[in-house]
Design a protein that fits this description.
Blueprint lengths: L1 H15 L13 H17 L2
Length: about 50
């Protein structure tokens, strides 16, 4: 139970401090992998 609470607290603190986050579903095929990588790249480039 403690681990779940710690995870919830961590997520809450990240959102409160407005830390940029990227939430993606795990890809299941090659086409989704390409989109997955492109979205990560765009997110990281946006942090600069």
């Amino acid at each position: 139970m403690a681990c779940a609470r710690t995870n919830e607290l961590t997520i809450y603190l990240i959102k409160q401090r407005r830390v940029p986050t990227l939430e993606l579903d795990y890809p299941t095929n090659e086409e989704e992998v390409e989109d997955f990588i492109a979205r990560i790249k765009n997110f990281l480039e946006g942090l600069k």
